[in-house]
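Note to self: keep these together.
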Amino acid sequence: MRLPSLMALQMLECAARLGSFTRAAAELNVTESAISRQIQALEDRLGVRFFERVRQRVVLTPDGDRYVREIRAELKAIERATKDLASRAGGMEVLELAVVPTFATQWLIPRLAGFRAEHPRIVVNIHARPEPFHFADSLFDAAIYFGDAAWEGHPSAMLTEEGLSIPVCSRQLLQGKPPRKREDLLKLPLLHLASRPDAWPDWFGGDDEAVRRKARLGPRYDLFTMVTGAAICGLGVAVLPEMMVRSELESGRLVALPFAEPVESARQGAYFLTYRQKNDQTDKAALFADWLLRQCAAAQG
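Structure:
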């Protein structure tokens, strides 16, 4: 049997992933009718039905779901191989790195110039990816993630724990009546990261429910960068991992309250690096891993 065209398979995978011929057409920069014709031709040729229409969406049939899951990994492999070939033809290597967003913006990116200086022929593309994934189903060469264990079946290394969390704010907020004791903080706006709703109650500690209730009051933000930005702008006090705001503290954009003792982060786990297994000891992912581990060791002291 002659194999389907790569374009037809790309259209099928895209329509399945997006649940819409219209959105697939927009992503692939073709017409919706072109998507429909290619998928219809595939169905006629293979004698199966890939989609059912449910309201405004197209939903894979069981046969379609199994087929798309099997070809998706192959399409990703072809795309990755093509990108690698193009980069090598230009004398460069490209490392596709999936990273937890906060670690990328607050810790990794400020240090990446050092990696470029050591390995000028390796370009690091960074993708925000907080959720776990399978390398076989992705274009990524490596991943930095937060968890409580290494990923089985791949080279992995623990990079660092979050360590101590400290209350920080702008100097602007402290002008006039700076707080002098822990309870004074309850008179100031407390900024909260939505994914860590107990950060302030845990910092205050104790069993006083009235204090814990007050510690939960204040605006909430979805992203770490939003909380940091709000603190820099004088909107309140945030309790954040010291390792993630070190540059803001060193630059003076944020200050740590002198009486506010740091506490261990209540978030259980650590940051890990994992990457695809390859035999070549000069592999770009292995080189990046070696550099990153040295950076973590230096940062810890």
